[in-house]
Write a structure and sequence with these properties.
43% of the residues lie in helices and 19% in strands. Strands 6-11-10-9-8-7 form a six-stranded parallel sheet. Strand 8, helix 8 and strand 9 form a beta-alpha-beta unit.
Length: 277
């Protein structure tokens, strides 16, 4: 996955305008315009780095800078590792510090979590995926970070696939009727996923021809039974209330995908600092 440069610039410009407004009263009044400086981005924890390019772009939009990348997106880092060095006007380095850190810390936090969850299920047939529970405006950054950490993306938006959740099903009069109505209108490239809450709904979704079936808030034991019932006729996705403590058991049930909203909606920022030399 490659981040769209136009999107990235727009996000960064919005963030910079929000932070700087019309001036930086501390930096502009304190630091001479001609002063040059050098900065280091240093990891203060162990994990996966992500967002190096986004951090650099913050400073490029503020000034002409030189930089050296020591750790690329997807690389493992430990406490004390230098990720990136920057050289340019000190004013630009100071003005871009917070915005650049906000981006690289958030994205590295997501990549680190995605990597952690992927390692837990290693050796099973399952893969980790994100959800649409992303922060408004930041979805491309967050989904990029998920992939950088070694997990996969669920549908990107509502246009990617038809996903029948409980409210859709109730509004359409049931699983069978909902799938039947959709099949009449969908093109051959669009898949249908159905959210099920029990094994009876699973059987109905299978009979109606669902491509993907979500097992919502089911125990690993029930999921294992669902895998046996499905027998490869549909892709099975586990979702709902899955934590690091239950993740391995869910994966060992035999499901294909495990989607985790916490990858993007409640991830902890990765600890990175910028130091002016």
């Amino acid at each position: 996955m490659i981040l769209n440069k136009i999107y990235l610039d727009n996000i960064i410009k919005t963030a910079l305008l929000e932070d700087i407004n019309y001036c930086d009263v501390t930096t502009d009044y304190l630091i001479p315009d001609s002063q040059m400086g050098r900065a280091r981005f240093v990891s203060k924890a162990e994990g996966i780095v992500c967002g190096v390019g986004a951090a650099i772009r913050v400073f490029e939009l503020l000034d002409d800078i030189e930089y050296e990348i020591l750790k690329n997106d997807g690389d493992s880092v430990i406490k004390g590792d230098v990720i990136l060095t920057l050289s340019g006007h000190t004013r630009a380095l100071l003005k871009g510090e917070r915005t650049a850190l906000n981006l690289i810390q958030h994205m590295s936090g997501i990549a680190t979590a995605a990597n952690k969850y992927s390692e837990i299920i290693k050796g099973t047939r399952a893969t980790i995926a994100d959800t649409r529970k992303t922060l408004p405006g930041l979805r491309p950054l967050q989904k990029y970070a998920v992939m950088t950490g070694g997990a996969k993306n669920h549908r990107y938006n509502l246009s990617d696939a038809a996903m029948l959740k409980d409210n859709h099903i109730d509004a359409a009069g049931g699983i069978t009727n909902a799938i039947t109505l959709l099949r009449k209108k969908l093109g051959h490239m669009t898949k249908i996923e159905v959210e099920t809450r029990n094994l009876d709904e699973l059987r109905e979704a299978l009979a109606a021809g669902a491509d993907i079936i979500m097992l919502d808030n089911m125990s690993p034991e029930v999921m294992k039974e669902a895998v046996e019932i499905t027998a490869g006729r549909a892709v099975l996705e586990a979702s709902g209330g899955i934590t690091g403590d239950t993740l391995r058991a869910v994966a060992e049930s035999g499901v294909d995908i495990i989607s985790i909203g916490a990858l993007t909606h409640s991830v902890t920022a990765f600890d990175i600092s910028m130091y002016i030399e």
